[in-house]
Amino acid sequence: MKLTLPQLDIFFEQMLHPDIPIYNIGAKIEIKGEICKETFTKAYHEMIRQHDAYRSFFRENENEVRRYIYEGEPRPLEWVDFSENTDPVSAAEEYMQEEFLIPFNVLEDDYLYRFVLIKAAGDHYYLFSVYHHIITDGWGTSLMFQRLIKNYNDILKLNAVQDQYPYEYSAFAAHDEAYRISDEFSRDQQYWAERFSSLPQVIFNGNETKDHRVHISDRKELIVRREDYNRFIELGKKHNFSTFHGFLGLFFFYFGRINQSDDLAIGIPVLNRNTKAFKKTVGLFMGVSPLRMNLNDENSLLELIENTRKQLMSDYRYQKYPLGKMISDLKLFNEKNRLFNITFSYEKHNYADHFEGTETTVIPLTNKSERSALAIYVREFDDHEDIKIDFDYNTDFFDDYSIEQCVRHIEHLIVNIEALAEESLKKISFLSQEDKENLFSFNERFISAEEKGSTEKTFLDLFRENVSESPDKTAIADSKFRLSYAEVDTISSRVAYYLLNNHPDEKAIAVLLGRSAHMVCTLLGIMKAGKAYIPLDPEFPVNRLQYILKNSQAGLLISEEPISIHLTGIESVFLQNILSKEEDFVQTVVKPEDTVYIIYTSGSTGNPKGVEIGHASLLNLLQSISQKPGVHPEDTFYSVTTYSFDISILEFFTPLMSGATLYMAGDKTLRDPLSTIKEILKVKPSIIQATPSFFKRLLSLGWKPDSELKILCGGDLINNDLIEELLISCKELWNMYGPTETTIWSSVKKIEHGTSPQNIGQPIKETSFYILDANLNLLPVNSLGDIYIGGKGLAKGYYHNEALSLEKFVKNPFREGELIYKTGDVGQWNENGEIIFLGRSDHQVKIKGYRIELGDIENHLNTIENIEDSVVVVKEIEGENHLVAYLKADAQIEISGVHEKLQGMLPYYMVPHFIFTIEEFPLTPNKKIDRQLLSSKELPSDEPVKNHEIEDPQLVQQLKKIWKDVLNTKEDIQDEDNFFELGGHSMLVTKLINRVNRKFSVHLSMKEVFENPDLYSLCQVLLQEQNGDSGIAHAPYQEVIRVTPAQNNIWLACQRKGASPSYNMFMEFDVSGTVDIVLLEKAIRHIIAANEILRTNFILKDETVSQKINSAEHIHFALEINEVQGEAEYREIVDAYKSYCFDLEQELLLKMMILKVGQEYKILFLTHHIIFDGISTGLFIKQLVSLYNEFAAHRVELMPEIQFRDYAYWYYQNTDLEKNDVFWKDYTKAYEYDSFLKKESPAVDSYEGNILTIPLDQEVSKGLTDLAKEMKTTPYLLMLTSLLVFLRNISGKTDICIATVDSGRSAPQVQSLLGVFIKSILLRVKFGEEKLGEMLQKVTEEFLEVTKYEEVSDYSFVKNKVDILFVAQNPEFSYHHTISDFAGFSLETVPQNTVYNKFPFIMNVISEPEEIHLEISYNKSLYKDHVIKDFSQTYAEFLKYLSALKADAESEYKNFFYSNNPVDIDFDF
C-alpha cells in the first residue's frame, strides 16, 4: 500500500540523511523489581502481533515506495546481561545510547523496531526500545507501552492476554488517501499558502553552512518542580489557557526577544487523530505544523498566550495538511528552517502503569541528530512527579554555555510566570538578578578607583607636571622643529594669552591649520584659555567647512597663510601673528566639566553634526590608554591622523600627558606612502595609531613593522589578512573601538594570532557597555543587540542640536541620573566579558527572511585570493532587495570564480547577486568608506553574476531529456530551471535519481538533488562524480588488451603442472521441478553474448599475458546432458568435472551439465577464477534466473553498460602500480616465516584438498555478533582479529602475516559486472601484550591501510611465506541455499567435501541468518587431517569461549590459553 502523507514526510527527509538516525525514536524503560523473562517474551510477541504498524516494512517498486506487512516471526526480543559488570548501570546506559544511534535502513530492513531486555542487577532491568518514526509516533509508543504492560500482567496473572485491539493503521491509510483527493485538501492548501505568502524571520541562522552538513545534537535537561508547575497550571485555569498554550506563549516571547524578532514561527506536532479509533491505533499519524505569531510589545504575556491559543484554534482546522507539501508549495524544498527552526512538543502520555511487582519509569532517548536549531520536549508522564523538559540542541547553533543560558532563562520565566503574566512584554526580563549582576560585572571589573583629588584635574594639569619634571625633553617634533616640553608650554601659552585678551567671550575657536608641531601647540593653547577647539581640515570641501562654522557659531578662525581657502562670516587670524608676540600668560582655571573640543562627524542628513566633549571625558580616555595599551615616557608616538578625525586627539595628547614624545607626520609626507615609510624608518617610533587602510597601503609597498613597534588600529574593521601581516613582525597589535560620542575609544583588545577581528575587547576605564533590545532590556551573553555606551567618556551631546542629543543620549535604565549613548552598532558579549562587534545596525539587513550581517559576507570575500578589500551593500531592484559586492583587487580576478568560491563558503542567501570590481572605494570626509554612496550608485550592469558555462554540453542535453521525461513536460528546460518549480515532487525525485544513476553511472543521492535543484547545479554534481574515480568509460581500441594484475597472478599460478584446477569454481545443485532445457541453454547463451569476459581467452604474446575476446558468433555453448545410475558413477563424473583442466588459451571457460542420477536431476556448474570471482557467481545466477523467466515471457535483457576490458583499461589509467610494488616490498621486508601448523613435504606438487565444516551454534554465533557490537566493530573484523590472536598464542610468534581478500569493486559501475575483481592482499600485524580491544584496533587500522592498495605484487612471497588465507563469504550463495526464483523449478546447493586448493589453508567464514559456519579447505599433501581438525576445532572452542565472556573478553581472553583450561591445545604442530 502507499505511504501516508505523514510517512512521506518522514521518508523523504530520512532519504536526505540516509546514514543518520534522525528519525530514531524510543526510550529506556527502567524497571525496578523482578521480571519473568519468559512471560515478558510472550507479552512482547503478542504486542507485535496486535499492531500492524510494527510489522510494517518498506520497499521501492517501480519508482514508488510502498508499505508491506511482514507476516513472519517478529524480531526476537534481545537479552543483554550487565549484572556482572563493575558498574552495570553505567554500562547499560552507555550501551542503550550507543545502540539508539544505529540508523535503520528504511528500504532494506525487515524490522523497523528493536526491543532489548537488559539486566543491570538482580531486580533492576531496562527495556530498551527504538523504532523508526515512519512506523509510529509518540502517541503510538505510549499505547505500545500501556499494552505491553497489560499483556505482561495478564499473562502473569491469567496465563493469557485478555484484550485484543481491532485497530489497524491500514484504516488510517485509506482515510489519508481519501483526504488527498478531497476538497478539504485543496482548502487546506490554500489556507497555508496565504498564511505564509511572506515568510517569518529566520532565527538562529547565524552558524549555518551551505553544505547542510551532518547534524549533531545533544540534550540538556531541565527539571521543573511539581509545586512550581502546579502554580503554572493554576494560572492557566484562572485565565483559561492550557499549559501547552502557556509554554508556547513563553517560548514565543523568549525567542522573539532574544533574536529581536516580532514575527516568528515554531514547529509544533499535530496529533492528527480525529476519531476515537485513530486515538487507539498505533502508527504514524502525527505531522508538524508551523505556528506563526506576530508579537506586540504592548501586549501582556497573558494576551500573547491568548493570541497564541486563538491562532492555534484557527490553524487547527487545517492541521492535516502535511509539512512536506507545504514546503513544496512554497518552493522551499530543502529549507524547512525558513518556516521554523525551533520545535516544541508537549508530551502528556500515560506512562504511569507498571509491570506487575515493579516500579516502571519511561526515560526518552535522544538520537543526537536534531536538524532544527532547537527542539523542546515538555514531558509530563505522571500527575504527581516533577516535570522534565528536554532541550535537544543542534551543536551548529548552541554550545554548552549558550544552551545552559537558554535553559536558565526559560526556567526563570516558568518559575516567575505568576509575577510576569500581566506585565507588558516590553517590560519583562527573563534575566535573573544573578544574570544581570554578571553582565554588569563585565563593566565593573575594569573600573579603577581614581586617585585622591584627581576628580578636579584635567589633561592640562598633568601636562604641566611633565613640563615641570622634564622641561628639556622633546615633547613634539616634526620634519622642521623639535619642541621641548618647556617650549610647547610657552608657545601654547601665547595662544591662550591672545585668546583671553582679544576674544574673551568666544566659547569655541575654529582651527584651519596644516599638520605641524605648532598646530598641536595651538590646540593646547585653546584648551589653556578654557575654550573648545573646532578642527577644520583643509582637505574638506569649502561648503562643508562653511556649514561647520555656521552651525557652531564660532566667532574666530585661526588659520595660516599657506592655506588659500577663503571662508566667510567669521573673523580670521593667522597663527604666525599670534605667535609673534611675547606676552606673559596668567594661568586660567579650566574645570573638568568645561568643553575641550567640538568635532564634526558625518550625519545621516548629509550635514555633519558637532560632538561636544568635556575635559573629564578626555582625561579618562587618555589615562586609560596610557595604562592599556600603554604609553610611557620612553615612547615616541608617530601621528598620522587628520585632526578633524577624533582619534588624532589620542595621538596628540596621550604622549604629552605621559611624558612621551609626539612626532607629527606632515601633510606632504602622508600624501606619499613611500615618503611615509622612509620617515617611519628614520624616526623609529614605538607607537603608531591609524586606520586599517593606512597600514594596508604601507604593507602593499613592502613596509614591515619594526619588532619594537606597538600598533593601534581602529576607525574601521580590521581583517584577518591584515592581522596576520602585522603580527609577523610588530611588537603588539591592538584593536580599538569607539564612537566619537563616547570620546574616541571605548574598548580595546590586544590581538594575538587567531583573535577574531570582530572582537573589540573590554571596556576602558570608567566605561560601561550595554547590549540592549529595542526596549532597553538587557540581553544576555551571545545575544545580538544594540550597543549602548555609558560612563565618563560620554559626550555632552550634539552641539546646538538638543533634539538629536535627546534622541541619542538616553536615560541609563540601570544607573539613576546617568545617560547612555546608542551607538548604532550591533554586537554581543562573549563569555569572557568581551564585546563582539557585528557591524552597524544599518548594515544588518534581511534577505528572503534571513537576517544577514554584511560584514560577515565581507570577511569571507576578503579571504579569497587577490581580493584586497570588499564592501557589500543592499540595493533595491524591481522592488526586491539584492546584495551587491564591490571588490578592490590587487590582481585580475574572475568574478564568476569569486561567486563559485562564495557558494562554497556561505549559505545561498548570503551570496551577492551582483559582484563588481572597483578601483577605489568612495570615502566620506573622515576617510571612511561611503557605503551610502555605493548603495545609491547605478550598477555598472544589471546582469547578475552568472556561472561558468557547463563543460559538457552533451551531458546537459541528456539531463534535460531525463527531466522532461520524469516531469512529463514538453516545455524546453533551461539551465537555471528548478526541478521543483517545474512540478517535481518527492516521489519524482526517486524516479529522477534512478534514471540519472543508470544513464551516467553515478551514485546521485536524494540529498544532492534537494541541495542542487536547478539543472546547472545538478550538472556540476554529475561532472564532479564523473571526474572522480568512479566513472569508467568505454576503452579505446587496443591491439593488446592487458589482463589485470589479479588475472596475471592466476595465469602464472596455472602454468604450474596440475595447478589450474585449483582455480576452478565449481557448484553442484539438486533440481526440484521441471527445467526447460532449451530455455535454460538460450538464457546462458544470451549471458555469454552480453558479457565479453565469458568469451575471453588468455594468450602469452611478447612476454605479456593479454585478453583475447572472441565474438559471440564464434562461440558455441551447449548444455551437457548425462545420466548415471549409481553413486560411484555419479561421484566419478562430479570429481572429473571439478578437476577439469581448462585450456585458458582456446576453450570457453564455462561449462554446465544436467546430470540425471537415478530419478533425480542435478546441475553442475564450472568456470575458472581467471574470469569469475565469488560475487560474479551470484550475479550470474541472478541474471540466469531473470533471463530464464523473461524469455518465458518473451522479453530480452539489454547489454551491460561497460565490459570487463573497459574496467581493465580504466584500472591501468587510474592505478599507480609502481607505488603499489614499493608498498608491498616494504610491507613484507624482514618477515621471518615459520609455519603455524606442521607441514608435510610432498614428493610432488599436488593441489587436491579436503573441506572441513564446523558450524557454530546459534548461541555462539549470536554471542560473537553481540561482542562485535559491544566492541564497536564488525563480526568480520572480530573473527579476523580472533584468528590472529589465536595464531599468536599457539605459536608464540609476535609478527604474524596471513592473506585475505578484498572485493575490489569500489567503482560503482562494476558492482553488477561479471569478472574477476577480487584482490589478494596481505595482513601483517605485530602484537605485544595488548588487551583484546587494543589488538582489534591494531588489526582494524592495518586492514584499512592495506585495502587501499592493489593485489600483492610479490607473488613469490605469497607462495613461499604465507600459508593461511582468511575470507568471509557472502552468504547469498552458501550452505543449503535454495534458489527458488526460476519459473517451474528450484535449485538446492550441494555441499562439497573435496576441493582443489589453490592455497595451503583457507578459512572461510560463512554467516547465515541464524548461525556462522567455518569452512576450512586445505591441501591434503601439505597437512594431515588430524592436524587440521585439531587446529580448527580448538579455534572454534576459542570462539565459543570469547562469545561467552562477552564484556569480559577484553581482559580474560588469555585465560583460554592457560594450562588449566580443559581444552588441550598442545596438539602436534
UniProtKB/TrEMBL annotation:
GO CC entries: cytoplasm
Keyword Cell inner membrane assigned: no
GO molecular function annotation: catalytic activity; phosphopantetheine binding
Residue ranges constituting the Carrier domain according to the UniProt record: 950-1026
Cofactor(s) listed in the protein's UniProt record: pantetheine 4'-phosphate
Entry annotated with the keyword Phosphoprotein: yes
UniProt xrefs under NCBIfam families: AA-adenyl-dom (TIGR01733)
Protein name: Carrier domain-containing protein
Species of origin: Chryseobacterium angstadtii
